[in-house]
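Quick one:
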Amino acid sequence: MKILAIADYESPYFWDYFSPEKLEGIELILSCGDLKPQYLSFLATFAHCPVLYVHGNHDDRYAKDPPLGCTCVDGKLYEYRGLRILGLGGSMRYKEQGEHQYTEAQMARRVWKLTPSIAWKHGFDILLTHAPGRDMTPCTDLAHQGFQTFNRLLERYRPSLYLHGHTHINYGRSIPRESWYGPTRVINGYERYTVEL
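Output:
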């Protein structure tokens, strides 16, 4: 399956210079968060596939202006064509206010609530988050350091693919686009990235 991962920055390749052939062959679009709802709606209009998303830490606006034609999989185990996608949006809590920010304990509780669904489906194939796992990028500030809870999910269920955003590639050359966590391929979906699964 050909998957388009997007996150954090509305790609001019689509947003400013769109032509229909740019989405040819894409079978699934997965948003890792922090994108304008209008951008997701735009892609959903022209893509011949579902657009699934989780919330980024700046996506409070989705409550009043949700992306049209898209499906929120945040806090869910969603299945598409036999592909099991576990969605967990948000970032580490770094200020008092913020709808999509969590402490490590809060994120662990979110995962605990999903444990029956994961067991029923015998695991998952893709972990879709906004924040990365802990120490997966060189960002050490609280907002971007990532969740140890995600590392534990990868260690226990060993999915094929882990997609995240939040740590922008343009933060520095040391931010990896691709890496591995055990047998799991890890991809930073900043702006746009196409992957075959």
